[in-house]
Amino acid sequence: MNSTAILETLIAFPTVSGTPNADLIAYAEAHLEALGARIAKVPGPIDGTWNLWATLGPDDVRGIVLSGHSDVVPVAGQDWSSDPFTLTRRGDRLFGRGAADMKGFLACALSAFTRAAARKGDLRAPLHLAITCEEEVGCIGVRTLLPSLSELPVQPLLCIVGEPTSMRLATGHKGKLAFRAACTGRAAHSALPTQGLNAIFLASEFVAAAREEQARIEREGAHDDAFEVPYSTLHVGTIRGGTALNIVPESCTMELELRSVPGEDARAVFARLSEAAERIVEPYRSRCPEAAITLQIVNSYPGLDSGEDPWLDFMTALTGTNERIKLAFGTEGGLLDQTLDAAVVVCGPGSMDQGHKPDEFVTVEQLARCDAMLDAVVARLCAPGIEAA
């Protein structure tokens, strides 16, 4: 089956984050086992979710990993022109949820395994495939697979994470620290506000502190001009508080996010914000001992900085351009880079400009370019001297 036919099957699995991906994994497992690949599965963090690891070729030599996630973002509330879980072609565009992010790459990877199996006798080094779950909700699914990858008897040389980059080579992305700020005041009748402590007012002071920290980051923090926004960004995403107009609100909760460039100490930023929270509530404690702003980290993943590695030159040649980019969005690449003794890059078909939107699509041309790249990867695995990029 070619990549487009495989993509049609993958799109039909409605693997929205938080729901099972078992049917998709079963399909991939059957496809790969029929080719002679060795399979291992690891349960994900939610019932019915799985990570899959497949290997084709010898297992005593360092090889190359293709990596992609199986989950997609929801379609609820989006106005699609066609069924999001039925691949629909209009001209050069293939529409469907996950077409770009990132079942297009998974389809190319499974197709590449088919072509690699036809050359199985020529493979001097293994081709690996990682299919993960629950990436879209903070890269949580891959974490159950990481212990197995760290204990591989032979570590790979290169890992290609196939997030959509329009087939440009990405050698870095920002990390993420997501946290919650819970503001506690004291309820009172709104006619007697001095008897209470307005938790929303506490939250507003903390928002001001976050904005001051963002200004400090822009002045003094790490910078990397390869990113579209060359510094780390601190963002308030949600704020919820109060129960009724005539009640001084007792509680208010905010969700914040730090997207940090490599080199920024995200935990130090979090520590400064914790200190700012304490400074805000301290003046209120004499009359309201319960006053508090409590910060709690709810998710984090590291950024990626591939540095310099001979395999980057190999990948640059495969993309047909000398361009190397860094991504504003996060991937599993940072976690894989911390786990594998391998060069980790991001390169895949489609554009994140189409991701997470109605009428998400990937073009036939992008799939063809990805097929060509993976054919070159397989050819490299069949050539002598794999250790030398």
Describe the structure in your own words.
The chain has helices at residues 3-11, 22-34, 99-117, 146-150, 199-220, 266-281, 310-319, 333-339, 364-382, and strands at 38-43, 50-56, 64-69, 88-90, 93-95, 127-132, 158-161, 169-173, 175-184, 188-189, 233-241, 247-248, 251-260, 292-301, 304-305, 324-327, 343-346, 361-363. With 389 residues, it is of the alpha+beta class. It folds into two domains: 3-173 and 303-382, Aminopeptidase; 175-301, Alpha-Beta Plaits (2-Layer Sandwich), CATH 3.30.70. A six-stranded mixed sheet has the order 1-2-6-3-7-17, with helices on both faces.
What structural class should be given to the helix and strand makeup?
A: alpha+beta
Helix segment tally: 9
Span from first to last CA?
30 Å
Pick out the low-confidence regions.
Answer: none
| CATH top level class name of the largest domain | Alpha Beta
For the biggest sheet, the summary is:
6 strands, mixed
List its traits.
9 helices, four-stranded antiparallel sheet, Aminopeptidase, Alpha-Beta Plaits, 2 domains, 18 strands
Helix and strand topology:
Layout: H1 3-11, H2 22-34, E1 38-43, E2 50-56, E3 64-69, E4 88-90, E5 93-95, H3 99-117, E6 127-132, H4 146-150, E7 158-161, E8 169-173, E9 175-184, E10 188-189, H5 199-220, E11 233-241, E12 247-248, E13 251-260, H6 266-281, E14 292-301, E15 304-305, H7 310-319, E16 324-327, H8 333-339, E17 343-346, E18 361-363, H9 364-382
Parallel strand pairs: 3-6, 3-7, 7-17, 8-16
Antiparallel strand pairs: 1-2, 2-6, 4-5, 5-18, 8-15, 9-13, 9-14, 10-12, 11-13
